[in-house]
Design brief:
This is Fe2OG dioxygenase domain-containing protein. The structure is a single chain. This protein is α+β, with helices and mostly antiparallel strands and 260 residues long. It has eight helices and 13 strands. The strands form three sheets. A seven-stranded antiparallel β-sheet has the order 1-2-9-6-13-4-3. The protein has a four-stranded antiparallel β-sheet with strand order 5-10-7-8. Strands 11-12 form a two-stranded antiparallel ribbon. A hairpin with a 6-residue loop joins strand 1 and strand 2.
Length: 260
């Protein structure tokens, strides 16, 4: 685990020098970065939706800043008209290390320590962060979509395409926002080739995403619930207060289905 953490740090912060200067020593970087071994990110199950989990403190403010810098260096958004980038197969190193970090935060979180059987699920979706067949697949993710949203811009209700396997991760950066989940209707459930539970199509479950948070969707959450972010005035309300909308960056990691 320590070696993976070192690799993640090098991918995000750059390789350390051989200088004895304490400001550049790898150990001091490790201490300053508060990587997952030094904190215990907490998981919140969204009780209304099986297979939907939220980790609010996945990335520290320092890690978020470094990740945004790494994204900026890619040059994908050098023009104002460019607000989306997609990559398949060989992902940037920082995205690959994010995948490693997601696996680690699932395996070594306090939640799993207290509920060790839940990591493998044993056929029970409730209380399961990620089914073992997803958690141990290689690679964990091989498709990346990165979006930059300006105030007022969001995403329409949708279920991710069936060309992607089960198990989707979303990392939210910069502005806080509320992602709403709505259960698909019976027709859409049949079209997906799977059976869903009965919900009113108007039932919306709000999930508050803070900067640096991680959302995991698998099973029902992945196939039977649409997710959306409406950032128009009056829709981003949490605990009676409207969220001040600023620029937001999201990273979605998925795995392409194998071609038979």
């Amino acid at each position: 685990m320590e070696e993976k953490q070192k690799t993640l740090l090098e991918a995000v912060f750059g390789e350390s020098s051989d200088s004895e200067d304490s400001d550049h020593h790898p150990q001091n970087r490790l201490e300053d970065s508060s990587i997952h071994s030094e904190k215990n990110p907490s998981w919140e199950p969204i009780s209304e939706i099986n297979g939907l989990w939220l980790c609010r403190d996945f990335l520290s403010p320092q890690e978020q800043s470094s990740l945004l810098s790494a994204i900026e260096k890619e040059g994908w958004f050098s023009e104002a008209s460019h607000n989306q980038a997609m990559r398949f197969g060989n992902l940037p190193e920082w995205a690959t290390e994010l995948s490693h970090s997601i696996r680690e935060v699932v395996l070594f979180s306090d939640y799993v320590s207290e509920h060790m059987d839940s990591v493998t699920c044993d056929g029970d979706e409730k209380g399961c962060l990620l089914p073992s067949e997803i958690l141990w697949r290689e690679p964990l993710f091989d498709q990346l979509i990165l979006n930059v949203y300006q105030p007022g811009e969001g995403i329409c209700p949708h279920v991710d395409l069936m060309r992607f396997e089960d198990g989707i991760a979303i990392i939210s950066l910069e502005s806080s926002c509320i992602m709403h989940f709505t259960h698909v209707d019976d027709t859409e459930a049949c079209d997906s080739g799977r059976e869903g539970r009965n919900y009113s199509p108007m039932t919306k479950i709000p999930v508050y995403l803070t900067p640096g948070s991680l959302v995991l969707m698998s099973g029902e959450a992945r196939y039977f619930w649409k997710h959306e972010i409406n950032r128009k005035p009056g829709f981003q309300i949490w605990e009676g207060q409207e969220i001040d909308q600023k620029s937001r960056t999201s990273i979605t990691l998925r795995k392409l289905c194998k071609i038979e």
